[in-house]
Design brief:
499 residues, alpha/beta, Rossmann fold, 5-stranded parallel sheet, 22 helices, binds pyridoxal-5'-phosphate, Thr_synth_N, EC 4.2.3.1
Length: 499
């Protein structure tokens, strides 16, 4: 069963929690009890496919779904042709004691696919189970990665419609092309005249407008969100920690039971929190190392216990980690305080009103035991991309490079020799401009198109351009609507063909 991190009384089934998304008191749904694995669970995972491992892990959390339902959801998400690696999330040995868990073989070349391919399957199944008839309208404001991953995940999924708003001049050319060429009959992509905050504020206003929502309900529509506050986006991510461990055992890199460290490039704290659940379930994890860029709010928090969002926002080479409010931290705090939802609620209220809160010493001690944290600058990130390519012939995207360097620094400073898995969150091709500049030492693409840049990068790193990115050049543009930010509510109604 699932409860709100802020204490609303009702316990919900997984299907109810996934269909609701966010708890009525503004909290996030958390499992009332974290399931634990028994002795042979890991042994049994070793010979299995990713899909089978996913079903085995998900069955422990989605106890109101039948095994057949879970298996069908998993097949729909990770089945034939969706991922360009048979292993779905392969583990690569880069050097002695350091491995990369590649989470970017899905349709959009970034790790959001791991969750956003499965969430729609879980949601549709949930709607059937609870008898919800309304059409679920997913509104997304995106700075790039989430929008495209949501479009791919919800494309032609029954009983759902997706409307993505992106800032007209605020996404990379590849990201824009990925979205405006999107195929599917249940989705719209709309450029907003403004920046990401304008798009996000517009979406939030729609969500919070009671009269507007009532009008939608009357027409059989219900708004929902695809971001990582939904339990259905978090639970798929627990799977790849288990799968990575099983792969290490299978390839005889470690013996069953030996602990490993995971280093996670972190923004909203969703990815690394999934690792925390895996550890609590009994997966042999020693440390979960939190890697940040110069938006180092989490480094400070995990080190000192003070969460302080009152700081300058930096645009970095790793834009998907340019975040000052890590919403999934709320779930961690709930568990670390032993489910003290009144305390969690108080901290979140302080964050809202003053922009900061400080946790108690015992809670901080628990964090210190598990979550080393550090950050690196853009300069160091670029140097890391270049160095790892030279020394190990392994290309890193900027987010993964942050994690790599934090892992190196941690190992040196702590003397901890535990095998390390770097959680790799994007293909280097997705951030080709930064990667090319790091590898060639030149600052600009010198007027090249994105596609020429992709081909040049392919030559330098001697790896093929992911087909979905290469194909963009020849795909027809299908979405051309541009709107002013104040017109977003009217645009949604128009897209839903309501008056
Ligand atoms: C979203 C994203 C992250 C951050 O993940 P969180 O779950 O928000 O911590 C890191 N790298 C890439 C490439 C991403 O798209």
């Amino acid at each position: 069963m699932y409860v709100s991190s802020r204490g609303a009384a009702a316990q919900l089934t997984a299907a109810q929690a996934i269909a609701q998304g966010i708890a009525p008191d503004g909290g996030l749904f958390v499992p009332a009890a974290i399931p634990s694995i028994e002795g042979l669970f890991l042994d049994r995972l070793v010979p299995l496919t990713y899909q089978q491992r996913a079903a085995a892990v998900l069955d422990l959390f989605l106890t109101d779904y039948t095994n057949a339902e879970v298996a069908a959801c998993v097949a729909g998400a990770y089945g034939s042709g969706k991922f360009d690696a048979a292993a779905v999330a392969p583990v690569i040995k880069v050097k002695e004691g350091t491995f990369a868990l590649e989470l970017w073989h899905g349709p959009t070349s970034a790790f959001k696919d791991m969750a956003l391919q499965l969430l729609p399957q879980l949601l549709v199944c949930a709607l059937k189970k609870i008898g919800e008839q309304a059409k679920i309208v997913i509104l997304v404001a995106t700075s790039g990665d989430t929008g495209k991953a949501a479009l791919e995940g919800f494309k032609d999924v029954e009983q759902t419609q997706v409307i993505v708003f992106y800032p007209e001049a605020g996404v990379s050319r590849i990201q824009r092309l990925q979205m405006i060429t999107q195929e599917g009959d249940n989705l719209q992509v709309i450029a907003v005249k403004g920046n990401f905050d304008d798009a996000q504020t517009g979406v939030k206003q729609i969500f919070n407008d009671a009269a507007y929502n009532a009008a939608l309900t009357e027409h059989g529509c219900k708004l929902s969100s695809a971001n990582s506050i939904n339990w259905g986006r978090l639970v798929p991510q627990i799977v790849y920690y288990f799968s990575a461990y099983a792969d290490l055992v299978k390839a005889k890199h470690i013996r069953q039971g030996v602990p490993v460290n995971f280093v996670v490039p972190t923004g909203n704290f969703g990815n690394i929190l999934a690792g925390y659940y895996a550890k609590q379930m009994g997966l042999p994890i020693n440390k979960l190392i939190c890697a940040s860029n110069s938006n180092n709010v989490l480094t400070e928090f995990l080190t000192t216990g003070l969460y302080n969002r009152n700081r300058q926002f930096h645009k970095t080479f790793s834009p998907s980690m340019d975040i000052l409010i890590s919403s999934n931290l709320e779930r961690l705090l709930y568990h670390l305080t032993g489910g003290d939802s009144a305390q969690v609620k108080q901290w979140m209220t302080e964050l809202n009103t003053t922009g900061q809160y400080k946790i108690a010493d015992d809670c901080l001690a628990a964090i210190h035991a598990l979550f080393p944290a550090a950050w690196v600058s853009d300069e160091v990130t670029a140097a890391t991309i270049s160095q790892v390519h030279k020394e190990h012939d392994y290309p890193l995207d900027p987010h993964t490079a942050v994690a790599w360097q934090v892992a190196e620094n941690y190992r040196r400073q702590s003397g901890d020799t535990t095998p390390v898995v770097i959680v790799s969150t994007a293909s280097p091709f997705k951030f080709n401009e930064t990667v090319l500049a790091a590898l060639t030492g030149s600052d600009s693409l010198a007027g090249q198109t994105e596609f020429a840049a992709l081909q040049e990068l392919a030559k330098i790193i001697n790896r093929p351009v992911p087909p979905a990115l290469a194909e963009l050049e020849s795909k027809p543009v299908r979405h051309t609507v541009v709107c002013d930010k104040q017109d977003m509510p009217a645009i949604v109604k128009a897209q839903l063909q309501l008056r």
